[in-house]
Structure formats: C-alpha cells, structure tokens
Write a structure and sequence with these properties.
The complex is a heterodimer of chains A (175) and B (183). By secondary structure, chain A is mainly α. Chain A contains eight helices and three strands. Chain A folds into two domains: 95 residues, no CATH class; 54 residues, no CATH class. Chain B folds into three domains: 101 residues, no CATH class; 29 residues, no CATH class; 37 residues. The chains are: A mainly alpha (175), B mainly alpha (183).
Chain lengths: 175, 183
C-alpha cells in the first residue's frame, strides 16, 4: 500500500467518523447550538488523521523519512477538512438554512393542488426567516440581546470572513 | 542530511503543488471568463467545465512527470500524493463555487449581521424591516420557477418533476439526519 493511499484513506476515514458522529448526535442539537457544535466537531475530528498517520508511522507502514510523514499528515488533514467543509456548506448547510429548500418543502406539502403565494407567506415569511436566524446567531454567540436591542459580539465571524473572500472575488470579476 | 530530507519532502509535495497551481489557473480562467460573460447570471457550469479541463491537464502532467523520471517512482499508483492531490483539486471545486455564489447572493444571516454591524445596536423591528426589504421569499420563489423546479398554475405553485426529486432528497435527508425542517 502506498503513502498516497494511506493518506487519502486517513482523510476519508476521518471524514467518515465525522459523518457518523454527525448523523448520530446532531439530531439532538438545538438550532441555536448548531454552528458551535459543528465547528467543535470538525476541529475535534481533525485530530483523527494525525493519530492515524502517527500509527502508520509507528508501524512503519511505508519506508519514508520523518518529513514525508509530516507532509502526509498535513495532506490527510487537508483532505478531511475539505470533505467536512464541502459536506457542511454544500449538503448540510442548504438542508438546514436554505430558503429555497424550505420553499420546496412547503410547496411539496401542499401536494398536487399547489399553494398560493398568500398561503405560502402565512407558513413561511420574513418574520420566520428572521426568528430562525436570530436564534442561531444568538446561540453561536455572534450577537447578543439586551433590553430588546441586538448587538454584534464577534466582529470577525465566519460570515464576514466568507463575505470578505467573496468580496475579493467580486472585485476581480468586476474589474 | 536536512537538505536531503527537504528535497524528499519537496518531491512528496510536487503533485500537491501542481494540483494547487492548476486549480489557481482554473480560478483565474473563470474570473477572466466572467469578465467577458453576462454579469446577470451565475457562471457555475462554466467553472465546472474549466476545472474539468485543468483536472485533465493535472493527470496528463502527472503522467509526464512520472514518465520523465524526475521524481522517484513509488508504486503502481504512481508517485506519492498523485491521487490525494487530484481529490484535493476536485474538493476545491465546490469550495470555490460556494464563494463564487456569495458574490451574487446575500444570505438572510449575513443581511442581519451586516445591519447590526452597521448600526451598532438594533431592535427586533429594525431587523425585521431589513429582512423584509430584501424580499427573500419572492426572489427565491422566482428563482425556483426560473430554474424549472416550481411551476405556477392559475396562481398556485406546484413542484415539477425536478422539484419533486429535490423534495424527495430533502425527505431522505430528514430521515437520516433526524432534524426538523430548516429554513
């Protein structure tokens, strides 16, 4: 077995463990604790490829110098991190937060007779969107509430970091 | 000895460097493509096509490096990290697309956070006004109609076969995740 397959295996296996933990435990995680729990889970599981590669190194699964094992571990962590990132942003994220996905579900519930815009607005509207998000943002500690006033706590949260990256990309595209 | 180890480490990472370099090239190509193409719609499919071309370049380039004997051969799978780097390249495609979509779309959470950050401290009513301004429901509903997932019949919205597939996938996800409907 080559170091390439060992590295890829360690990354994919670690993601598999993350997915298993996620599928078993996250059904009980309240929406307000979701963001923090996800981040903690991803960071905790990132230790797994390091551990696996250390075991391979100890067992001398491949005849490599120490620097080779360090590189392999970094690549395994990168693969696991990317798999988690893609899962959270492209699969779990849209299921949990997408307005479009919620609309599809609301329309699906109406069945073959369909639903009017008015009926849809009664079930899902700006207030629902806002309340779900305020609950999440308060739970993640990005904002706080005092005497009915909401204020930012964390000025450099993930939303703003993503927004900054997208901003740079937008600038390049619009040049 | 340190120099020898460093040289070996560089060899191990050669494929990763090639993959990352070609991924950056595909992003730059897409950026130049977007400058020329219509700004009103997302060019996500174009990026997937560009990235696929560069992925082919990566595999052909890798094969040339392997045949040239510049790097030491490791196994039948090729040199170290050849497959891993290809997988990293593939995984970077949706990562880039996430950021690219953000250049044209605003999420409600981001809208709320920006509104709070701009004004310092805001009330529930202020946030609600801000969310209402963006009209998230109607813009998304129109997008769903335009993409062919939802059809409008006599003022009533129904799912098309494409939309029904998405609804089925969401139901399956709910079964596995065990979580309530999001939104």
């Amino acid at each position: 077995m080559t170091i390439d397959i060992l590295t890829l295996g360690a990354g994919v296996f670690s993601f598999g463990v993350f997915l298993l933990i996620h599928l078993i435990t996250f059904r009980w995680v309240a929406p307000e604790h979701l963001l923090k729990s996800l981040l903690l889970c991803v960071i905790a599981v990132m230790m797994l490829p390091v551990l696996l590669m250390a075991v391979f190194f100890a067992a001398q699964a491949e005849n490599l110098p120490f620097s080779g094992w360090v590189c392999s571990t970094l690549v395994a962590v990168l693969i696991q991190g990317l798999l988690c990132f893609v899962y959270v942003l492209c699969i779990f994220g849209p299921y949990e937060t997408s307005v479009r996905m919620r609309l599809v579900r609301e329309i699906a519930q109406a069945g073959a007779k369909g639903i009017t815009r008015q009926e849809l607005a009664e079930r899902y509207n700006a207030q629902t969107i806002m309340e779900i998000r305020l609950q999440r943002l308060l739970g993640s500690g990005d904002i706080n509430e005092k005497d009915g006033q909401y204020a930012s706590v964390n000025k450099r949260n993930l939303f703003f970091i993503f927004d900054d990256i997208a901003g740079v990309l937008k600038k390049w595209i619009n040049q | 000895m340190i120099g020898s180890l460093r040289s070996k480490a560089d060899n191990y990472m050669a494929y990763l460097f090639l993959a990352l370099l070609l991924f950056c090239a595909s992003v730059m190509t897409h950026v130049f493509f977007c400058r020329k193409a219509s700004k009103s719609c997302l060019q996500a499919k174009a990026f997937i096509f560009i990235a696929f071309i560069f992925l082919l370049v990566y595999f052909f380039g890798g094969a040339i490096i392997q045949r040239s004997g510049v790097l030491p051969l490791a196994s039948v799978w090729g040199l170290p990290f050849r497959i891993s780097s290809g997988v990293i390249f593939i995984l970077l495609i949706p990562v880039y697309l996430c950021f690219y979509v953000l250049t044209q779309l605003t999420s409600p959470s981001k809208k709320i956070l920006k509104s709070i950050a701009r004004q310092g401290s805001v009330s529930y009513a202020d946030i609600l006004t801000c969310v209402k301004e963006e009209d998230f429901i109607n813009t998304r509903l129109n997008d769903l109609c335009a993409s062919g997932c939802v059809a409008q019949n006599n003022g009533r919205y129904v799912l098309t076969s494409e939309g029904q597939k998405i609804a089925l996938t969401l139901n399956l996800m709910q079964f596995f995740l065990g979580r309530k409907v999001g939104g």
